[in-house]
Amino acid sequence: MDEASNISANAQLRNHRKRWLAIVIGAFVVIGGIYGAYWATALRYEQSTDDAYVSGNVVQITPQIPGTVVSIAADDTQFVKAGDTLVQLDPADAKIALEQADAKLGKTVREVRRSSRRKSMSAAPTSRGRRTTSSGASASRARARSPARSCSTRRTPWRARRLR
Question: Does the structure show a pLDDT above 70 at 125?
Answer without folding.
Answer: no
